[in-house]
Prior knowledge:
Elements: H1 8-44, H2 46-53, H3 60-72, H4 77-90, H5 93-111, H6 117-120, H7 123-153, H8 159-187, H9 190-197, H10 199-203, H11 205-217, H12 223-230, H13 238-244, H14 246-258, H15 260-271, H16 273-280, H17 285-313, H18 315-337, H19 342-360, H20 363-370, H21 376-393, H22 395-406, H23 411-429
Amino acid sequence: MTTTNKPPGQKxxxxxxxKRLRKTTVAGSLGVFVEFYDYGAxxxxxxxxxxVFFPDSGGPAAMIMTWGIFGLTFFVRPLGGIVIGSFADRIxxxxxxxxxxxxxxxxxxxxxxxxxxxxxxxxxxILLLAMRLIQGFSAGGEVASAMSFVGESAPDNHRGxxxxxxxxxxxxxxxxGTSLGVLLSRALSEEAMLSWGWxxxxxxxxxIGILGYYIRKKLQDTPVFAExxxxxxxxxxxxxxxxxxxxxxxxxxxxxxxxxxxxSGYYILFSYMxxxxxxxxxxxxxxxxxxxxxxxxxxxxxxxxxxxxxxxIGRKPVLLTSSxxxxxxVVPCYMLMNLGNVGxxxxxxxxxxxxxxxxxxxxxxxxxxxxxxxVRGTAYSLGFNISTAVFGGAAPLIMTAIITATxxxxxxxxxxxxxxxxxxxxxxxxxxxxxxxxxxxx
Length: 442
């Protein structure tokens, strides 16, 4: 009997390539983890933050201002996208990743060190807003840079699967931040939480960010970007190239529509969910965490599956299944949660999570495949961040204000439906690009 073995050199190359892809995926995921870890911690600790930083002692006005700060930071994301995205298009993806992670980690850590309103008065919420603005600025460039870095490094036929792990990192971050928040609130007295307990989740971001910085500094830039640089395709002003090219402008408009569901779904279905269950529906903190945690576990499992399926059958069928499914089922799912029963709430949340995985798991892959290398960081950042700022970041504030004014607890469901319809229309008029090599996108 004879056996056929691959040459040793070929095995080494394959092993080195797998190792490189693992490092690339981890490096991209860690920065996304830090960004969304903060959102999870802030979302769960919103009631405590309101008491610490505002004079209304956590009343409706303080909660609205707390979510207002959360929403305002999203409006600097397009600016961060322009600055850091352009930096990524001119200098390189890796350099942009290091810059964004440094800013983000620093701002999150400083929040954990800020004195409260009782100590420095109005300066406390002003400093909180300043740090959140820095976070928003850095996050505006982080997402597109990280996703482009992983996408440009991945094989064409596995791009959806590998990029999906960045999104897994974001939901693991939400789960970690939310779980840590409820663990501290149950282990500590309210006085201890208000005094120092709330700081711990934000301070933990420092070692995570340092680890991400160390990993990113050691990476090489992507093969796609390196090829573009060697071919002299890099432009001096990616922003000018983005806004003056009619094809790129049209794609940016399409990007805003494609990401509508991501903008509302992420912040309504997950970041805002603990506060919604506790403050609006009367669930205990433990019950609210249980519902949110189970739905997060469900989406963490479903996202890589969605990425794999999209590699095989294309992005559009997966996106349409998600957006149409949520359009039809999100209101019934919210009705289940409004029953006040933990089991029913879990069922509704899990259905929404699994459906949303079909969008969240591959939307960034769709964005990477939409724009050419020379403006990918800038155009992707602008389209994605404009949608996120308008339809995502402000959503918790809008939902809280409308529910307070009307008493209608189904408002978040209607909001998700509207954005799901918008995304469905955008997907239908978009082009399937999953089979195109990224260096061939024009």
